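ARCHIVE RECORD
Type: protein–small molecule complex
Small molecule: zinc ion
Source of inputs: curated submission
Record status: active
Notes field left blank by submitter.
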Amino acid sequence: MSARPLAIGAAAIAAWLLGTGFACAETTAAPPQPVAERIAEGVWLIPGGILPKRQPDGNTILFGAGRARFVVMDTGRHAWHRAAILDFVRARHGTIIAIVNSHWHLDHVSGNPELKRAFPDARVYASRAIDSALTGFLARSVESSRQYLEPGKLPPETQEDIRNDIATIENGAKLRPDVPVDGSLSISFGRRVLRLNLARDAATAGDVWVYDAATRTAVVGDLVTLPAPFLDTACPEGWRRALAQIAASPFIALVPGHGARMDRGQFATYRAAFEALLDCAGSARSKTECAEAWTQSVTPLLGPDPGERRRSQAMTEYYVEEVLRANGGKSAYCGHGG
Ligand SMILES: [Zn+2]
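STRUCTURE (tokenized, with ligand):
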């Protein structure tokens, strides 16, 4: 089976196809909720993940805004991920006053409606890119993914994710921002001042990355992901510019959209590997060589799971050949509903 994407919500796609055992189709219980980790004064990380046979969840960050008020950055895909967010806030008798979405991919926004049901005054801050995505990438994802719902085509967990993603897209209006981010700006959320930086035409048509000056933390969504950059809807040149802007900020800790926290040196490693990967994709070198070079460069950033290197290699080969080279060096959605 080739590493063909489900094309639903820009997923990490190939990951479950690789060594997760499609034949092993018994249903398993819902995974345990992720646990929040304090990473700086008044800043907590609820880690996302890519579980076998499941689509990914992105990382969530909670910023304390004083008086038990919280700003939530990204809301995950699965019910157990948003339950972890809600449990964290409720355990502190707190309130969610704002949600910031780094971008519209479903592993980052699917929790928005449930969090807003729980805290109706919460306002969603995001770029307007989801509007064109709902009629472009996401609409096409629904069409192309229905075929995978026939019995036996995929493991039941994956089919459950697809059904939930389709429901999320069909209620896509509920994902849209209350406060569109049309340019970079600083916002005071209670005592927390966050800089919302808009990066146009990068991982999506509008990515928002956040800088918290009080703790010198940058939360960058899928502008930084491991084990591979998720290039499904990417405009590579804008993405390069966004990484340069992040590098120019004085962060000491960086939270990627997927994967572990990074310091400046680790981010520099990622950025150099990313630039080299784009250069390789534009050269005559084979997809295997490009992916091997990428995987070698980011190995110090990958977790201890030996499957990570295998996933890195396969996903990167797919992105080089079927996303970048198939569309003249950018994704098919760059400038068209991505
Ligand atoms: Zn993501």
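CURATOR ANNOTATION: Residues 56, 58, 105, 107-108, 222, 230, 257-258 surround zinc ion (CB under 6 Å).
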